[in-house]
Amino acid sequence: MLEDTSLTPQEVANKLKIAKNTVYELIKRGELNGYKVGKKIRIDLKDVEEYKNRTKQIKIKNTEINQNTPSKFIKTSSLLLEDIYSNDGFIICGQDMLLDILSRYLELHPNGVHALRSYTGSYNGLLALYQGNVQVATSHLWDGDSNQYNIPYVRRLVPGIPTVIIHLACRMQGFYVAKGNPKNIKTWEDLKKPNIIIINREKGCGTRILLDEQLRKLNIDRYKIKGYNKEVFSHLAVASSVARGSADVGLGNEKTSLQVQNIDFIPLQNERYELVIKKEDLNKPSFKAIIDIVRSKEFKTELLGIGGYVITETGNIIAEL
């Protein structure tokens, strides 16, 4: 049966006739479900078949520009293939889909650029910003000691470089559980129950750090939690694992729970999702375009239409470090 067949990344690459690194990138972006067994990544054959079926009809079209995109953000009436694939090395780091929206607006803005996306977790994204490998990082990292988001981590991971933190949105994080919550999982303490199996996120993402910080504060030995070492690479993969019965609980945002059948969402913590930019870049046209977009009515309206975001502070400068 398809669901009983587990493949290595190289085997998936051979089936799809793509590079193995592309398989890893698809997993990071949440387009292909993957999970860890020990230190090895595995992909179920049925997920590969589902990915193939989803992508059969994908075509590049000029009409992919959102019809509601305001004219002030459009710098040309059409997109040519060479425009789509050319780039100046401008990279936005982060995994949330609102960054796809931001990238689209940025490409169409008169002072914008074609931005590449790096689907890397918050911790590694800040390191990449410090090392000069990306231009914009995003973060939703919670510090359990100060009960503060992002600022403590930016100070530690981007030391000696003046930075600006710009608020994007608030999102609700919580547990994905089976429909009806048959194991009555409601709090962090419930993860200690011996009959609970979790599905985890990869090290370095904000969701994983939230879990680890909560376990640390409650003095819960994470290695005694069944499933702790099994990792997947997106909210969608976590929710899918719970829906299929591979795990009893996983941590993710509320928006994704609405996309997956047969699960319930248990809200736990409101988190802050924010942009981090080097202060020296603020007056450059592309970065000014980002701030213009994030503060625009059109961008905020699109986030509201998707749902799952609180935008009361969107565009505000939260800190200058």
Automatic annotation (TrEMBL):
Span of domain PBP: 105-294
Please give the Gene Ontology molecular function terms for this protein: DNA binding
Helix-turn-helix domain mapped to chain residues: 7-54
InterPro entries documented for this protein: HTH_17, PBP_domain, SinI_DNA-bd
Top-rank taxon: Bacteria
State the name under which the record lists this protein. Helix-turn-helix transcriptional regulator
Organism, scientific name: Clostridium thailandense
